[in-house]
Amino acid sequence: MPRPFPSLSLLLLLAACSLYDPAAPRPEGRDINLGQNVSIRAACREAADRTITRQDRGQLMREDERDSRLGTESSVLSSRAVSDQMGRQFRRDRMAADCERQNQYAAPDRAAAAPTR
Questions:
Q1: CA of 94: how far to CAs of 3, 44, 45, in Å?
Q2: Hey, is 98 helix, strand or coil?
Q3: How far, in Å, CA of 54 to CA of 75, rounded?
Q4: Is the per-residue pLDDT at 99 higher than 90?
Q5: pTM reported for the whole predicted model
Q6: What are residue 111's phi and psi, to 5 degrees?
Q7: What does the alpha-carbon distance between residue 104 and residue 36 come to, in Å, rounded to a whole number?
Q8: What is the DSSP string of 21-82?
Q9: What's the pLDDT tens digit per position in 4-55?
Q10: Higher-confidence residue: 25 or 64?
């Protein structure tokens, strides 16, 4: 009896690949030039760093105290500290990306939008 799973999975893989068109135009959605985009990215990253540091300052002090008392890699808790650091980095990156997405469009120029009489 033939097995339908390998042929079915191959068919699904080919169908999924056929939906992707690398030559299709990508929606840019950016009204600002590259210099402004870099400055927005830097400002968002800095704001996210400040927010995460302020939110987690108690945990950071506990980690520093534990590391100075026990050493950085000598404790069972060091693996938890690594996962906590990765969690903070993920939250910071997500906050910065949200900030960039919210601020990616340039504000309208008021001088150009003002009606002339």
A1: 44, 10, 10
A2: helix
A3: 26
A4: yes
A5: 0.52
A6: -65, -40
A7: 9
A8: -TTSPPP----S-HHHHHHHHHHHHHHHHHHHHHHTHHHHHHHHHHHHHH-SSSSTTHHHHH
A9: 566 667 666 666 666 656 566 555 544 445 567 888 999 999 999 999 989 8
A10: 64
